[in-house]
Specification:
12% strand; alpha/beta; five-stranded parallel beta sheet
């Protein structure tokens, strides 16, 4: 990844006014709804959608702002591995045994409730024991647990009826609207992009990763050629991989 891409990704994540697209607003709404629910109502949530729409970036941003627990699942991760990561994020030294790890999670979350976010849930869906462990953690602590996955994760999680019945809030991340794109470009781009150029840029990009890569490329073009704005010519020649 080039230094231009690294710079603009960091700018997006560290931006004082995080770009609140429709997806981000829906994400915030889901979190608020879960937190505000009474103890009698299940507090599990699901965020799902195609890749490249900013699900993980939004989750990391929200986690940082709200002292939540964020765990990114990995391929073949066991229930022990998930609990171990949660304990680490809670600021404790993980025990060796799974039963003790579960007790650490329960004791901590009962004493200090925190939202737990499990990203890349698709890696765990094939492991019933891990899925049931997350359900148990929710039931025994009452803490909100939010799962984030790909477009198919909603359907795949449906086979775990005991868990799926506890999912009381669901948000689908969708491709950016024109209004979203306009806000993102205005907030993130440090070079002026003409209205005509924006129209073409929007046709070439409709996902978060494409947008930030496109902005990085345009800023690089402007810097290299001493331009103070980007017009149609530069955008038409832009090649952004899907």
């Amino acid at each position: 990844m080039s230094k231009y891409m690294v710079t603009i990704i960091r700018r997006f994540l560290m931006h004082k006014l995080f770009v609140k697209t429709r997806n981000v607003k829906n994400f915030i709404g889901l979190m608020n709804n879960l937190i505000d629910k009474s103890n009698e109502v299940p507090k599990m949530g699901l965020i799902y959608g195609d890749p490249g729409l900013g699900k993980s970036q939004t989750a990391v941003w929200w986690t940082t702002k709200n002292d939540a627990v964020y765990v990114r699942a990995q391929n073949n991760m066991t229930s022990h591995g998930v609990l171990e990561k949660i304990v680490e994020e809670l600021g404790e030294a993980p025990s060796k045994k799974s039963t003790e790890l579960m007790k650490q999670c329960i004791d901590h979350l009962r004493l200090k409730p925190q939202v737990v976010i499990i990203d890349e849930i698709d890696y765990l869906i094939g492991h019933s024991r891990t899925i049931e462990t997350l359900r148990d953690l929710h039931d025994l602590t009452g803490t909100p647990i939010v799962l984030i996955g790909m477009q198919e994760s909603k359907t795949k999680l449906g086979k775990y009826r005991h868990l799926y019945d506890r999912i009381s809030e669901i948000v689908e991340f969708k491709p950016f609207s024109k209004e979203d794109m306009d806000v993102i470009v205005e907030e993130l781009s440090e070079i002026k992009i003409t209205d005509e150029a924006k129209e073409i840029f929007f046709e070439k990009t409709n996902r978060f990763r494409q947008v930030i890569k496109g902005i990085a490329l345009l800023e690089n073009i402007a810097k290299t050629n001493g331009l103070n704005k980007i017009d149609v010519k530069q955008v038409k020649g832009l090649n952004i991989e899907k």
